[in-house]
Known about the structure:
This protein has 273 residues and is of the alpha/beta class. It has helices spanning 5-9, 23-32, 43-46, 58-71, 90-104, 116-127, 156-172, 184-193, 214-218, 235-251, 266-270, and strands at residues 15-19, 36-39, 76-80, 108-110, 132-137, 176-180, 198-201, 209-212. Its cofactor is Mg(2+).
Amino acid sequence: MKRSIPELQHSEVPLVMVTAYDYPGGRHAEAAGVDLILVGDSLGNVVLGYDSTAPVTLGDMIHHARAVRRGAPDTFMIVDLPFGTYHTGVQDAMRNAVKIIQETGADAVKMEGATAEILQVVDTLTRNGIPVMGHVGLMPQTATAQGGLKVQGKDDDSARLTLDGALALERAGAFGIVLEAIPARLARLISEKLHIPTIGIGAGVGCGGQVLVTHDLLGVYEGEEKKIAKRYAEVGKVAREAIEHYAAEVRARQFPTKENSFVMKDDVLDKLY
Ligand code: KIV
Ligand code: NA
């Protein structure tokens, strides 16, 4: 059953979040009983084949989130606001978040950053009844400006910025915050200072929950190991081998067999000759 925000916030055990991007992804996540599904804009990387999340549009997010919702009607679903959809003023951000909620059945939206502008957006959305999850540390949408996809919060300035950002997001009304790619001890400190749950990815075990990109945990892409993710399966290998097996059987006329074929009465067939 779908868990409410207070239930999620008071969980005794770490919260489990996974990403999903389509109907099968939603079904798998719901059947596995995760607490939260994130329709992440990592969609751009793992499903659409872009090399960053920047090209992902609001339309892409809505199209995919609707499919996830059909597969996971009873799981708390958060949808990422993609790059550019909450950076041109509070009204635009509000309009785009409302569109996501209305058209996808999302329970909440997520956005990256803790600048004064973003904090104002978080404040406005939450005051108007749209739950917002924050996201600090490594922020893929603006990674170029952060000096590339690398660990944040390692020196005092960066650690302070990350901690202050998380605290400010809580004050602005966020119900939870993703901590991405920061040292484990910093993530633990932030998690202790906040009253809302932190959801870590590459942020150690001291967070209120964990999130992984499903394609990473499933091992969808062969040979693409990542430090922050554990591969719980090798689905890419399984998929490739299954297709190779099918191809070999087609070429050897071993598939389809009688079991896969339809029969008809001989006399009907005879009339055709
Ligand atoms: O887009 C995404 O998948 C994310 C998670 C990594 C938190 O933002
Ligand atoms: Na994201």
